[in-house]
Write a sequence for this structure.
DNA sequence: AAATACGCTTGATAAAAGTCAATCTATTTT
DNA sequence: AAAATAGATTGACTTTTATCAAGCGTATTT
């Protein structure tokens, strides 16, 4: 039996509400456990993102590949995050992004229509969605603010302060890409910062 | 009597639902019309953003000022947008942003607690919030993607394509700041693009 | 009408970041 | 164990963008 406890804990924590036994059963009925091995894709550019997945274990990157073949990482996702290209997921349009497992992934996945029909009616879940939406708005605003007004070095320092576990968990070339820098530039930034 | 029609139209359009006469009365009771003259502040750094305002007429910029005294514009807002620093508005913490009228503003403003108590229970409104939240997530993702993977010139071209009315309505130095560029750099980018 | 602000442009120079190539180390994979 | 791969670093050089300063029109203000 797959581990739904992480999902229950997460929903309850963010919503501040309790899930009844019946609620839990609805989750268990509609979310499907799935494993994705390292280097496998959860989503490929051009495909429709039919599922969103709650990460129970593992990590993934969401990225594009430009004309020169360079990767640009938009998101790094770990346990207790939702995996999806939400534009494609909401609108059922082909995605511009790839999502690839960086470590073996265990997720609980579900389609948009099943969420709408069965999961969103659960009050704790929609309360969680509201909190999550607020958190995401705030985080997106902060990241955008950094991006337009700070140097690479300042953005890196902010990441070290705000998400130190990301620095430990992911190799530097991925962190660099997430910050909009090349690996060489981040390497030099770190060298200079050591003074 | 202030123009609530723009707000009603907006809520109905985004939600796909109809507002009853009673619903409308709830809006009229709790939203307060306010005028803010050009160059006046809706919000100042360090203050708590107690209100969100629906823009009926006019335009505003949301920006920070860095240690060197340079402005960085995070958002440019016009009719049918909501004005606020949502981090400060949701959490009632002091804001890091300033919001200033670029043109005389007519807004309909309301506090967070009044929204929660009286407005959000209106189904069309909460449906609108859901759609808005999705749209914002998608737009934020797209802008972030541009920021980490494109040059200034490409970001400018994208803005011209996606929001041509912004280019017409705001001076170039504000557009430059919104794109994370100096006015000089944007001026040169445009000169080169004319070839 | 004169004075002032503002916005845009251009030039010269500096700083930040990217590109390409080489090397080194530490894992993985075979 | 050997081979292959992945990640990090460094050097030389280029491109992109910022900075500072000046000049020029056009609104606004007085």
């Amino acid at each position: 039996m797959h581990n739904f406890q992480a999902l229950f804990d997460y929903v309850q924590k963010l919503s501040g509400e309790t899930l009844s036994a019946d609620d839990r059963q609805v989750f268990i009925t509609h979310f499907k456990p799935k494993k994705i091995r390292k280097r496998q894709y959860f989503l490929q550019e051009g495909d429709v993102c039919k599922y969103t997945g709650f990460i129970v274990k593992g990590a993934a990157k969401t990225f594009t590949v430009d004309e020169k073949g360079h990767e640009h990482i938009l998101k790094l996702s770990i346990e207790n995050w939702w995996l999806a290209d939400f534009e494609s997921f909401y609108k059922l349009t082909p995605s511009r992004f790839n999502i690839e497992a960086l470590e073996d992934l265990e997720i609980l996945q579900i389609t948009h229509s099943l969420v709408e029909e069965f999961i969103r009616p659960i009050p704790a879940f929609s309360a969680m969605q509201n909190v999550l939406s607020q958190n995401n708005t705030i985080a997106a605003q902060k990241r955008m603010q950094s991006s337009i007004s700070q140097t690479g070095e300042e953005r890196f320092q902010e990441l070290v302060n705000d998400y130190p576990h990301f620095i430990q968990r992911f190799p530097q070339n991925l962190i660099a890409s997430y910050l909009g820098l090349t690996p060489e530039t981040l390497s030099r930034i770190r060298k200079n910062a050591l003074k």
